[in-house]
Design brief:
With about 150 residues, the protein is of the alpha/beta class. The chain is about 40% helix and about 10% strand. It is built from six helices and four strands, in the order E-H-E-H-E-H-H-E-H-H. A four-stranded parallel β-sheet has the order 1-2-3-4, covered by helices on one side. The N and C termini lie far apart (about 35 Å). The structure holds NADP nicotinamide-adenine-dinucleotide phosphate (NAP). The site of NADP nicotinamide-adenine-dinucleotide phosphate (NAP) has 22 residues, from helix 5.
Length: about 150
């Protein structure tokens, strides 16, 4: 009863269910890898059902999103960079926050400016058909992932 809210990371849905539904832990957010090249629909559906935000780590696919030709093409249309498109795609999703890491000031500013990039349905379709099985963070102690 002394802790009001708890952030967790790298849980799968089974682990979250246990924490929330069996233990009754006040889970405030869940941090997990999520970007245009990794499916997290099962996790997102569960978190939305519970009203818990997903905090997307490695939202730029550890920097590789910046050189993806599909994202670059979408960026050209909107006067944006591929990295901004990658962040905009996450930010427009209900219940998703992003934590890009950037050590350069220009990248930090550019990432903040991604908030102003608005995608259309053609863009969403082009991103939806990108491969969604690229996981960058998968240490030996990781749980069995949902996707
Ligand atoms: N909970 C966990 O298990 C877990 C696991 C992994 C990561 N994380 C956290 O998630 C955060 C981000 O993840 P991450 O660092 O793995 O991956 P990321 O944010 O997807 O990518 C970081 C890379 O993208 C580059 N970058 C940043 N902004 C850019 C831009 N506008 N244009 C081009 N390149 C850009 C960065 O370069 P520069 O830095 O050189 O600018 C860096 O090389 C970190 O704070 C990390 O601590 C958590």
């Amino acid at each position: 009863g002394t802790v009001r809210s708890i952030g967790v990371c790298n849980f799968n849905v089974t682990m979250l269910r246990k924490a929330i539904e069996e233990i009754g832990a006040p889970i405030a957010c869940h941090q997990i890898e999520y970007h245009a090249f990794l499916d997290q629909s099962k996790m997102l559906n569960y978190l939305r059902e519970k009203g818990i935000p997903l905090v997307a780590y490695a939202p730029l696919a550890q920097g590789t999103a910046a050189s993806d030709p599909v994202l670059q093409g979408i960026g050209v249309k909107h006067g944006a960079t591929a990295a901004q498109v990658a962040l905009a795609w996450l930010l427009e999703q209900d219940g998703v926050a992003v934590i890009p890491k950037a050590q350069h000031r220009e990248s930090q500013k550019s990432n903040l400016d991604a908030l102003a990039v608005k995608l259309d349905d053609d863009d969403r379709h082009a991103i939806a058909v990108l491969p969604k099985d690229h996981r960058f963070v998968n240490p030996p102690f990781a749980p069995e992932w949902d996707a």
